Structure formats: structure tokens, C-alpha cells
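Recap quiz, item 2
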Amino acid sequence: MKSNQSNIKKAKKYLDNYECIAVPTETVYGLAGNAYSDTSVKKIFKLKRRPANNPLIVHYYNLKSLQNDCKINDEFKKLYYNFSPGPITYILKLRRGSKISKFVTNNKTTIAVRFPKHPLIRRLLKILDYPLAAPSANISSKLSSVQPSDVKEEFGKKLKYILKGGRCSIGVESTIINLSSKAVILRLGGLNVSKIKKILKKQVLIKNKLKHKISPGLFSVHYSPGIPLRMNVKKPTKGEAFVLIKKRKINLRDYFFLTRNNNLTVAARNLYPLIRKIKNKGYKKIAVEKIPNIGIGQTINDRLKRASKF
Ligand code: TXA
Ligand code: MG
């Protein structure tokens, strides 16, 4: 605990000096900088090699800290009180006069906001006098990082500091909902859409298809392992790493398992690290068996589909 405290102070120091650092969240690690500073935000884009037209998510401690930056509405409040802090990102209208750097939003009139739940980033946000702009801590279009070693693999020495918070408990990115006009899901993620519908008491459209270009970050090539990936595979071909949802007795060298017991939440948590591991073992191709398309299984399938566009 004590060492955590000094690490949080160290993290604050880097951020106060307009540096960007990696921070843990419950979904994936973020590459964070002061969202009010052009200098900090520009560093994030450069380090991540992110196209300037792909806006960033801004992370806040609580509702109060966000009110000067964006306009909130009733649907937002309902979802906020039920699911935040947690794996949901809201697109809201930016307030005129807000201090958010124009590079965060790419000059748009909307802003993506999130309240992460991981205790370390919450303690950090609480002592900062600015919110944190943070995309996932990976080189643009590559796999997200869910543990400090992934972040190191992505950025090496170019990154000044990683606030280490262990392995991410959810392991896939947040669910994004646009609330700046009619409620629409823009990205499937860690929070089930069925839960959102229940709170809003209505159907909510999912517009995350590759052809919808509302969220510029949802380009077709995304979450890419850097080697070809096939999904819904019954039988792998020679030399392919074969990913199965549940551990089976077969002990073939090229077989890898997402879970011991079929639990989809666990499968989501293990997805990115397993794909990273397979790639690092030197495999040139990955095949994944059919994953049940229910609950967070939908998010897993969404990511596999994007990864397979390589
Ligand atoms: O779980 C997460 O959301 C992680 C952690 C670090 O919070 N962050 C994350 O950020 O996944 P990133 O930058 O990898 O993905 C953010 C997505 C991008 O697809 C971006 O285009 C979209 O959010 N986005 C950001 N601002 C937007 C806006 N104003 N309108 C529509 N989409 C927006
Ligand atoms: Mg990302």
C-alpha cells in the first residue's frame, strides 16, 4: 500500500510536467496525459502513432469534476448512477469554454468521457486538478495492453513511466454509448448492452459495423495481432495456433485454451494476453474456435472480427 502511494505521487509528478504515462484501468491500460494541455495530448498521439482525427476518451474521478467540460442529460445520469465507475464510455456534448484541449476531440463538438474503476487510477484522478485523456496503451491498430509487460512490449523505453496496477480485471475495452443525440452503442465492450437497455427501458441500436464511420477509431484494421487470424474454425490447418474456449484433455502443442470452465468473462480477460503469447511464440497464423455470441461473448467476437481483418 505504502509503495502504491509513492508510485501515485510519482505518476502525478510526470503528469504535472506534461509527460504521458501508462495507467491501469479495469478494462485495459491507458496512455494518459493532462486532457487540458495541448502539449500532453500531442505527446499521446505521437507516442501511439495515432491519426489526429481519432479522438481520445477523457477519464474523470466523478460527476462533479466533469460538469464544466460537458453537458449532461437524463439518460447519462441514469447510466452514470448505475454503472460508473466502470467499463462504460459516454459521448456527450462539449461545453463551450471547456478547458479540454482541442486535440483531444479533434475539434469536434462532442467528447468521450469515462469514470474508470481501478483503485489506482481513481486515487490518481482524485489528486489531479485536471482529467486524463487516455487511449488504450498500444501502438495504433494493435492489440490493447492488459498488464505492465504488454505496455513495455508496445512502447519500450520511449515511455517514461508505467503506474503498475497488475492485470486488468475485465481485459477488453469499455462499451461506448453516444448520448449526444439518440442513444446508440458505438462499440461493444466490458459492459453488456442488455444491462444498458434495462436501465434506459428501451431498445438501443448498436451501430458498430465497420461501414459506420461515426467513431473514427473503429477503423476496420484494429486490435490486430499482426498475424492472420481466422474465427469460427472447426479444424486448424498445419502450423496454425488453435485457440479453444475451454481446456480439453487433448494436449496438442498448438492448442491454447481461453478458460478452464467455459466462463465468458474469464475468456474476455484472457483473450488479448493469449493472442500476444501465441504471437510471441513465433506462430504465423491463429485460428479460433466458435465463441458463443452471448453477453461479453459478443465483445470477444467483435474484437476477433476486427483482428481478422489483418
Ligand atoms: O476501456 C477503454 O475505453 C480504454 C481505457 C484506457 O479507458 N480506452 C480506449 O480508448 O479504448 P481508445 O482510444 O483505444 O478508444 C476510444 C474510442 C475510439 O474508437 C474513438 O474513435 C472513440 O472512442 N471516440 C472518442 N471520442 C469520440 C467522440 N467524440 N465520438 C465518437 N467516438 C469517439
Ligand atoms: Mg484502442
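The mean pLDDT is 93.
The chain is about 30% helix and 15% strand.
End of item.
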